[in-house]
Amino acid sequence: MIPDTSADDDLDFPDEEERKTAARRLFAYSRKAIAEAAFVDRVLVNHPEFKTSLQACDRVFQLGRELGLQQGAVIVGPPGVGKTALIKHFRKSLPSNSLFEEGAGALAIRCPAHPNVGHIVGSLLRQLKYPFPQVSAHSLAIKREVLIEAMRQKGTRVLFIDEAHHLKSQTKVRSRTFGGTSTTDLLREFMDEVPLGLCLSGTEVLLVGADRKLSHF
Known about the structure:
Strand content: 5-15%
Number of strands: 5
Shape: globular
CATH superfamily of the largest domain: P-loop containing nucleotide triphosphate hydrolases
Order of helices and strands: HHHHEHEHHEHEE
Number of domains: 2
């Protein structure tokens, strides 16, 4: 009797798709190819809408601390058009200045799906290299004050909120020391108390119910 080895064959010999996967994993780019790809990756195409958005951010940056009127901009567009790249480019291209500490002139955070006050405060404290950035319900009020004072002293002029459309689904922090406060309440407080300008970046959801938009990809 000849044994049936079809099941064993399936285990011993990879199919065509598995062979292709293995071939891809064995493929290695040369150092020259990686260097050239890294160069291309750093190239930004300054198309008209990108330039317009940068100019809007520049105005907010320059006027956020100089005028009593709150300064802000909204940058909207579908995923992948370059909103996050614009924020990174703006921050990296800031020249050194005595008005703000290096790396603190423009701060940026990304909103999670359901942002709350603790997330915003903790993320900004980490960005400012505060030694104890973890935020609890008991420490929130104190660390909020610490954060506002730190941004004042370091000269922060603008705050970017990426994925800001998630602010539509924000959750409130409720505690005896910081009851019922939303992230939008906190952002307004930053604008008033630091003071600083605010740039929101996200999808078209940001414009629902808004009267106008400042920049659009």
